[in-house]
Structures are given as C-alpha cells and as structure tokens.
C-alpha cells in the first residue's frame, strides 16, 4: 500500500519562503510516496525561479504557473485538478500552517476519514482585528447559510480522492472551497495546531480582499440576503403606511396642532431611497454572479508547467 500523497501549495510572491518551506516539508514526506505541486498565482518576484531550482533536482516537486493572479481559491482549485494523489493536502507557503502535523492528518485519513481539517487552536499570533473579523464572518455565514462551515478552519486540510473528484466536477466559477467541502457532508475529523507567524513577507489578504472573500462565500451559499431585501421592503412599506394613517388622523382630528412637516417628508424620502438602493444592490450582486457564471470563462490560464 504505497499510496500517493499530493501536497498543493498556492504561492503568490513567496520567494523567501520556498527554501525554508521545502526544508521542513520534504523530510516529513520522505517516508511516503509524494508529490508537491506549487501553483504560482501570478507572482512578480522570483518565486517561480526558486521553485524551478528545486524542481530541476527532484521530479516530485512540480510547478504550474498562472498567466496572472487569479486568487488563492482558484490556485487551490487548479492544484486539485493537477493532483494525482490518493489524498491531497493543501497548505500555505508562508509556514503559518506547520507541515509537521501532516503525518497526523494522513493517519486520520488512513483510518478512513474523507476530510481532515487542521483546526487552529489559538490564533494569538493573528491580529485582534483578524480574529474578530474571522469570528464575525463564521457567525454570519453560519446564520445565513444552510451548510454549516466549521470555524477556525482555513484551507489547511486533507481531502480524500473521492472529495477531490467531487470538487473537480463542480463547474461553478465562484469557488469558496471551505463551503464546497462542507456542502458534501463527507466524514471528517480535526487535527489541532497553533497558527504561527508568517515566515517572511506580508499577508496578501488586504481588508478589501477579505471583504470580497467573505461576500463571495456568503453569496455562494445563501440566497437569504435576497429575502432580507424583501423583508426590508415590507418593513418600510409598513412604516410608510403607519405614517399615512398618522397624517390623516392628525389632519382630520387635531387640525389646530398640525404643522406641515418638512422634516418628516425629507427623512422619509432619504430612508426610502436608502432602502431601495440597498435592495437593488443586493439583487445586483446576485445578477453579477449569474453573469460571471453564464460567461463561462475558464477558471485560470496556465503560462508554464514543470514536471507535470
Ligand atoms: N496566495 C495566492 N494567491 C493570492 C493570495 C495568496 O496564491 O491571491 C497564497 C499565498 O502565497 C499563501 C496563501 O495563499 O501561500 C495564503 O495567503 P496569505 O498568507 O497571504 O493569507 P493569510 O495567511 O494572511 O490569510
Ligand atoms: Mg499566511
């Protein structure tokens, strides 16, 4: 039983991390039959040169380079497409995910589990802001979506070939992998770790990217925001109706106290306008998503492959 273990590593401008990562990762994998697939997500530094240096010496180290930056989730999806292993482990290149726990994950998988999540026990190395926003995000998505997504679980996980096959078969362009894996409801287990600090370089997840990621995750897994839009509409219509009754009653029965209300009119217009814009915005987001799916462009464009 010499099963093949694939390790997929998305990389964007990680030239300073490749050597350190391989130095820690390769000895751990040595007792297995393995392949390491780097997906270079449009790096503008020497990341691909660094990887090739190692790939030229060891055919088990492989590289796919994208034409440009397509994003972390797309890079992972590409890795799943190319991986040949009986199981596939995805891990970040910056050593925030310790490779040392991979054997533990493999062990769980050998016991028969389809999905092994590496769960962050502590995130004290992450900033307070990151921890809070992450917490809020998981709360929100679990309220909105019918697919429960485990919290404190990132993209460091092991998938059995069955699950990888399922993911590869999905045609959707918006790939929120955490949700897609959870959606399949495969048997799963957790392995715990403490998240380290980044080895070198800076995070690529700016606030803007984090918000985009969160929104696309929520939209891929829930249409409840559309319902919230309808509720907002009902609520404001009810308020408006009450306002009309108030106006009529006031004018008819208390004419001496009744003063023409410019302020009320003004705020009502602003409020209604706001609610309408929010609602149109929410609908627009979903239409945009449908548009992207209908365009049916490829998920990524490949520039170069090494050892693949
Ligand atoms: N990454 C990528 N494409 C991107 C952004 C990030 O391939 O558009 C890679 C990055 O090189 C790293 C992993 O995804 O290996 C996680 O990114 P990062 O460490 O910046 O995120 P964080 O750990 O701060 O959430
Ligand atoms: Mg990181």
Q: How would you characterize this protein structure?
A:
The chain has helices at residues 18-29, 47-55, 72-82, 102-110, 128-144, 161-169, 177-183, 207-221, 224-253, 262-295; strands spanning 4-11, 33-40, 61-66, 87-90, 115-120, 153-160, 188-193, 302-306. By secondary structure, the protein is an alpha/beta fold. The protein has 2 domains: 4-204 and 298-306, Spore Coat Polysaccharide Biosynthesis Protein SpsA, Chain A (Alpha-Beta Complex), CATH 3.90.550.10; 224-295. Strands 7-5-6-4-1-2-3-8 form an 8-stranded mixed β-sheet, with helices on both faces. Helix 2 links the parallel strand 2 (33-40) and strand 3. Helix 5 (128-144) runs parallel beside helix 8 (207-221) and helix 9 (224-253) packs antiparallel against helix 10. The two termini are 24 Å apart. It binds uridine-5'-diphosphate and magnesium ion. Magnesium ion (MG) is lined by residues 92, 94, 96, 198, 203.
Using brief descriptors, characterize the structure shown.
single chain; 10 helices; 8 strands; binds uridine-5'-diphosphate; binds magnesium ion
- The whole-number mean of residue pLDDT values reads 92
- Count of β-strands: 8
Shape: elongated
Radius of gyration: 25 Å
Please give the CATH class of the largest domain: Alpha Beta
Domain count: the total is 2
Strand order of the largest sheet: 7-5-6-4-1-2-3-8
In terms of per-residue confidence, which ranges show pLDDT below 50 for 5 or more consecutive residues? none
Helical/strand content category: alpha/beta
User: Strand share of the residues?
Assistant: 15-25%
User: Could you tell me which ligands this complex binds, including any ions or cofactors?
Assistant: uridine-5'-diphosphate, magnesium ion
What is the CATH topology of the largest domain? Answer: Spore Coat Polysaccharide Biosynthesis Protein SpsA, Chain A
Q: CATH architecture of the largest domain, please?
A: Alpha-Beta Complex
- The number of distinct helices, counting runs of at least 4 residues, comes to 10
Order of helices and strands: EHEHEHEHEHEHHEHHHE
In CATH, the homologous superfamily of the largest domain goes by the name Spore Coat Polysaccharide Biosynthesis Protein SpsA, Chain A
Q: Roughly what percent helix? A: 40-55%
